[in-house]
Known about the structure:
- 47% of the residues lie in helices and 0% in strands.
- The protein has helices at 4-12, 17-24, 28-36, 43-53, 57-60.
- The chain is elongated.
Amino acid sequence: MKYQRLQDLREDHDLTKTQMGEVLHVDRRTYSYYEEGDHRLTAETLTAIARFYNTSVDYLLDLTDEKKPYPPKKTGKKKPPEASSGK
């Protein structure tokens, strides 16, 4: 499966395959294999690419046409519900 959106995003940002390889800490050939679909993309790699381009993994995988990423996950503890006064 060719990942056309990887190529499109890279070209839209005027980046080379070598530069994207550097971002992902792989060589140019490996990145090229990603774009061509000759190597499987791991969840970690997909997440790194989505974060780099500020988009969603679903967009990269052509599951949606919406480029906007999902809202970030909320962190921290939830506040306990307020006790009712019972009146």
